[in-house]
Amino acid sequence: MAAVTIHTTQNVRIDYETASLGSRIGAFLIDLIVITVTYLLLVFFVESVGLLPYSDAVFFVFGPLFFTLLYFFFWEMLSRGQTAGKKLLRLRVIRLDGRDPTPADFLVRAVFLIPDAIFTLGMLAILFILTGRRNQRLGDLIAGTVVINTVGFGGVTLADILTIRNREQHAARYPAVQRMTDEDMLVVKQCILRYRRYRNAAHRQALSELAAKMMQLLELDAQDVKGSTEDFLEALLLDYIVLTR
Question: What is the pTM of this model?
Fold first, then answer.
């Protein structure tokens, strides 16, 4: 999988893994199942109340197309870049500039499903994803978005960062973390990332040693630290972002 670096409006650098082709296909297939079941139930209801003549070919030919586009547009817009399939497979649509995607971005992505997936049976989307540097389909390129894997980021999610607007909205537990540098906190982030990817004894030991070193540098006692070792290091990351940006 490729990596993408997002610079948020708070000038925070966040590295994510882009969604793999397999996970994107899987999410799309799940969404198609949801769309098919929902649309069939809608057709059954409309026919049962006598609002749809059986000869209305327009409803059956163009209805599924518009329903599919509306499904992706509204699901992603109302669920912050996720559909049912993306939620299940832990994927999300984000903007490359770190800002929240706008309704217009989601609309562009939905409309470009027509050439990306519907008219070409997904071949165009697969071609762009496989050959692009950030695994973007055509709709992503036009909208300036990318689909990322939300599992595996070291400690702080994009949602955590974007919900921090000022210091008053996040009570820093460890203000002494301001002594650290960006390079120090990058080590913390990468250590958490590797532990979450490879949960074995070696990485758990590395996490514990790093936490002990940070407590020493920040002159913290054991009773000052709340939660697990992982929670402590994650809190340090958030505190550092809020207090230094």
Answer: 0.64
